[in-house]
UDP-N-acetylmuramyl-tripeptide synthetase
Amino acid sequence: MTTPLERIRPAATAARRVRDLAHTFDLRATGPWGEETVTSVASDNRVVSIGDLFVALPGANAHGARFAADAVARGATAVLTDDAGAALLADMTVPVLVADDPRAILGLVAAWVYGSPAEHLTTFAVTGTNGKTTTAYQLDHLLRSLGFTSGLIGTVEMRSGDRVLPSRLTTPEAADLQALLAAMREDGVRTLAMEVSSHALALHRVDGVRYGVAGFTNLSQDHLDFHGDMQSYFEAKALLFTPEHSRRAVVVVDDAWGVRMADAAQVPVATLRTVPDGPDADWTVSDVAPHGTGSAFTVTHTDGRTLRTSTTLPGHFNVANAALALVMVVEGGAHLEDVAEALATGGGLAGVVPGRMEVVGAGSETDPRVVVDFAHNTEALELALGALRATTPGRLVVVFGATGDRDKGKRPAMGAAAVAGADVVVVTDDDPHGEDPAAVRAEVLAGARAAAEREAATRTVEVREQAPRADAIRQVVAEAAAGDTVLIAGRGHETIQDVAGVDVLLDDRVEARAALNERTA
Ligand SMILES: CC(=O)N[C@H]1[C@@H](OP(=O)(O)OP(=O)(O)OC[C@H]2O[C@@H](n3ccc(=O)[nH]c3=O)[C@H](O)[C@@H]2O)O[C@H](CO)[C@@H](O)[C@@H]1O[C@H](C)C(=O)N[C@@H](C)C(=O)N[C@H](CCC(=O)O)C(=O)O
Ligand SMILES: Nc1ncnc2c1ncn2[C@@H]1O[C@H](COP(=O)(O)OP(=O)(O)OP(=O)(O)O)[C@@H](O)[C@H]1O
C-alpha cells in the first residue's frame, strides 16, 4: 500500500549548531562553514522544512543526494551524506557533512538533534512475525485504561495526542521516528506502544531509542526476500533484545524460536507461556474459556501474582497477544492490582484493532458472518481459520491472495493452509505490485489444488480463482449462507491496492459491507 509521505513533527525544537553535530559524530565537512544551525532532521526531500538537516542516503532506487538541491530550496540548512553522495553534490550553499555510513548513524544523529525524546517517555516495543499490531493496540488500550496519555506507532497509524496519521511503514524511518517522538513529548504523551519490524532493526531505524520493555510474539516464515533465511531474520529481531535497544524483555516461549530468543536476549527477560504444554516460564496463561466474542484467561507468575481477565478478540493467538501486553505493562512497573482494577472497569482488554479479526457482519438467521483479517502468511492464515472454525456451524469460506514482489516461497504453502482450514477457498489478488497478478494467483492455486487432491479421500474442499478482489468478495458474500463464515484475509485495514504502480482504492471492509447490504436489499 502507498500512503502519502507525511509526518508528525514537533512545532518547536532547539537549534543545534552544525559545528557541534560534526564534532559529536566525527563527521567530515565540506562546503561553506559558519554558525549554521539545524532544528530538525529529514531523510526525504519531500518532507523537508526550514531548518532541517537533510540526510541523503544511498538507496536501492536512487541516491538521496539527487534530491539535496530541492531539499535546500525547501529550507534545509545542512546536508549529511556519504562519499558517493558528496560526489553528486556541486555548488551547495549549505554545509555538507560526510559519514562512511550515514544510515547507521541517522537514528543517533536525529535523537541528538531532538534532545533524545524517547528518554522522556515510558516506551513499549513489540516485535515478532505475527501479532505486533494487535499487541501494540492492546498495550495502548491498557495504558490508556491506566490513565496515561499514550502514543501509538505501527502498521495502521501513528498517533501523538490528537495528531493521527495513517502509516506508510510499520516502523518509520529514523528521522521521522525521532520527529514523531519529539512531537509526543510536546503533546504531553507519557507512554508509547510501538511496533518494531525486522526491517527497522536491520536498517537502523530505531537506533537512538532504548525501549523500557521489549516484547516478542513469535517467529515464522515471512520477509525472506529481505532477510535471506530464517537465521538472519531471527538475528534481526534479536537486535531488539540488546542493551542498545531495550532495558528488559518479555518473550513468549510458545514456539522454539521464542525459547531461542529468551536465550539470546542480552537484557533481563521474563518468559511467558500461553499454551498448556511447553517450557517452564515466569508467567503462564491458564483456564482459557470462551467469553463473548473472545476469551477469558488467567495470567499467573511463579511468585503467585495472578489476574483473571478477558479479550474481546477471537482465537487463542489473541489470548497470547493480550497476555503479552498485560505482562509487558506489569514488567514495566505497573502494579498487578492497578492493572486488574483498570481492566475490571473497562471490561477486559477490549481494544478494537482495525482489520484484525474485525467482524464486519456478525451473522444472523439470514446472513453469514463476515470477518476481515490481516493474515498474510501461512501461520497467520492457519490460526485465523482455526479460530473461526470453532464458532462456524456451516461452511468456512476464505478469500485471499499473496503479495506480488514479496517472499514467493510462501505462496503454495498459503494455498495449502487455506485448504487445510476452510471448506471453500477462493484465490484472488492481494497487492500485485509489479508482478503479473495471474502468475501470483497461479502459484497460490498450485499449492491449494495439490492440498485439495491430497485431502480428497477424506473431505471435499472447493478451490477456485476469482479476480479482481472486489468481485471475489462480492460474489463470495452473496453466495454464502446463514451459519457460514467468510474470512477475507490478507489486507486488513488497508485501503489502497498497488497494481503495477497504480493506486487502486480498495477496502475489504467496505466491499464486504456493500455485499451484505446487497443481500438485504
Ligand atoms: C527495504 C526498505 O525498507 N527500503 C526502504 C528504503 O528504501 P531505499 O533505501 O531503497 O530508498 P530509495 O527509494 O532508493 O531512496 C533513497 C533515499 O532517497 C530518498 N528519496 C527518494 C525519492 C525521492 O523523491 N526523494 C528522496 O528524498 C529516500 O527517502 C531515501 O532516503 O527507504 C525508503 C524511504 O523511506 C522506503 O520507502 C523503503 O521501504 C520500502 C518501500 C518497503 O517496502 N519497505 C518495507 C519492506 C518495510 O520496511 N516493511 C517493514 C514491515 C514489514 C512487516 O513486518 O510487515 C516496515 O517496517 O514497514
Ligand atoms: N500472536 C499471534 N500468533 C499468530 N498469528 C497471529 C497472532 N496475532 C495475530 N495473528 C494473525 O496475524 C495477522 C496479523 O496480525 P497483526 O497485524 O497483529 O500482526 P503484525 O505482526 O503486526 O503483522 P505485520 O507485521 O504483517 O503488520 C492477524 O490478522 C492474525 O491473523
Notes: The chain has a mean pLDDT of 94.
